Amino acid sequence: MAQPPILSLEGMALQQGGKWLFGGPDNPPLDLHIGPRDRLALIGRNGVGKTTLFRMIDGQIETDAGTRKVKPHAKIVLLEQDPDISGHTTLMDWALDGDHAPQEFEVEAIAGQLGIDMSRETSGASGGERRRAAIARALAQEPDLLLMDEPTNHLDLGAIDWLESWLDRYKGAFVVISHDRTFLKRLTRATIWLDRGNLRRKEVGFGGYEAWEEQVYAEEARAAEKLDAKLKLEAHWLERGVTARRKRNQGRLEKLWEMRAQRASMISAGGTAKLKLATEEEFKSKSVITADRITKAYGDRTIIKPFSLRIQRGDRIGIVGANGAGKTTLLKMLTGELEPDSGTVEIAKTLTGVMIDQQRQLLTADKTVRQVLAEGGDWIDVRGVRKHVQGYLKEFLFDPKIVDMKVSVLSGGERSRLLLAREFAKASNLLVLDEPTNDLDLETLDLLQEVIADYEGTVLIVSHDRDFLDRTVTITLGLDGTGKVDVVAGGYEDWQAKRQQPVAGKAKTAKDENKPAPPPPPSKPTKLSYKDQRDYELLPARIEELEAAIARGEQILADPDLYTSDPQRFANVSKGIENARTEKEAAEERWLELAEQVEAL
């Protein structure tokens, strides 16, 4: 017999800032039922109301319509993304405050496993310490329903693994907002999707979300064509090019794997950082940062043992490890911000960098988006290319109409995306990203991956986001906390695989014996036909032509007065861009298929 839900929201409607966020004349009322063992991923773009929905579930917000029903005696706990700990002397003082405060010994027990000292003064607590304290406080309350807003932000890999294990054993229900795809795939069993005021639900974990999303968009497109409402739909979603973006991402992943293979051939069998090219002279000409046997220690503790690395133009370097393992120290030495104790770091004189750290520079709340990006004007220089500010906003998934809105009305995630847009516009050939995925939604993460893949310079990334690293970097520098730095061609999973490899000469375990044998190698395909070979050779040039045509069209549409002054030209250019995108998408897919065949020959 099915158990009654812990919580139900029925017929909910809410206005914010003079517009309907949920319900109202344009959207159906919001309904949500959460069962006692539900494990839900809450998905949606920044600004659609995910955090607001959490506060509605928690009972913090009075809605304009609808009812909220909670199972008697059920305890709902909200783990906020940025809880207010002001007014308390220590983290423990804050954890024990409130109507449903947990017992101190229960907080201490969880805090000890998370490695956080709850006697730490709140005034000096770092983001990671505040996050651990908030988790300890929330879990110690033994909730029946746990609401988690970006729980992995500021956590290192060890803490994320611990939290995943705890949630795997947890007997209650939870709903989680997270940008961490790996976290979501491992833990969730159903997905609720907040989309244009509608809340959809599907009994499939996050691993099946993207296929579901594609299905929904395809069905909407077919319905829109039947109702002759295609332009209205395009204004909402087809403009995002979800399917095209995913196919482009597949192309970029193919390129990433190729780059990893090239780098793997340059790393010696022992995994040391001695990277080789065909000639030393050629290698030196491409090097932008050369570290030669650098070390660092603080007192008696060794942070970095002798380490050497040559970073080439175009490399994407990921740096991973537990908090305190030395990631930031290594990053600062490689970029010249910190001197090593011994060894040398040579940095190319032509290297000019942009740094985006996890604290993020604060945007002035009373400035408009136009002032932030273009100093109040209509145009912005994007790495040497002049673009209309509204057109550039579209590239970062914003509605161009927000150009004159104040920063203060944007959500936290939207502010992070705006800051990324501003920083990526700066001319540079070195991009340094310290925990860049914090506060970003999944679509912005996809966009960030695209921007990094298309960036012509060198990229250094410190991140705990495992999926993001797997999709982005060509080389991983893994720090295990002993001072040793592993150099692995590939991403986080490649580093993990290297760490789990048995030591040479070690006897096989029963687990090793039970591993399935690798599949036989595929049979060697025959060579390309004449037509396939011609397509393989000519399609790249055609794709470039189409990209140029799309760029010209977008430049024309960037004129904000075009629609009113010449609507027919606006329509013709828009149609031309649509046709070019369709042809380009088909050409990219065709070329990728042929490239796979060529690589297999």
Shape: globular
Strand content: 15-25%
Structural class: alpha/beta
Unreliable sequence segments: 228-243, 268-283, 504-524
The CATH architecture of the largest domain would be 3-Layer(aba) Sandwich
CATH-derived topology of the largest domain: Rossmann fold
Descriptive notes:
The chain is an alpha/beta fold. The chain has three domains: 214 residues, Rossmann fold, CATH 3.40.50.300; 243 residues, P-loop containing nucleotide triphosphate hydrolases (Rossmann fold, 3-Layer(aba) Sandwich), CATH 3.40.50.300; 76 residues, Valyl-tRNA synthetase, C-terminal domain (Helix Hairpins, Orthogonal Bundle), CATH 1.10.287.380. 41% of the residues lie in helices and 20% in strands. The strands form five sheets. It has a six-stranded mixed β-sheet, with helices on both faces. Strands 15-18-19-13-20-21 form a six-stranded mixed β-sheet, sandwiched between helices. Strands 1, 2, 3 and 5 form a four-stranded antiparallel β-sheet that branches. Helix 15 links the parallel strand 18 and strand 19. The relative contact order is 0.09. About 9% of the residues have low confidence.
List keywords for this structure.
601 residues; alpha/beta; Rossmann fold; Helix Hairpins; 3 domains; 6-stranded mixed beta sheet; 21 helices; globular
Short recap of the structure:
With 601 residues, the protein is α/β, with parallel strands linked by helices.
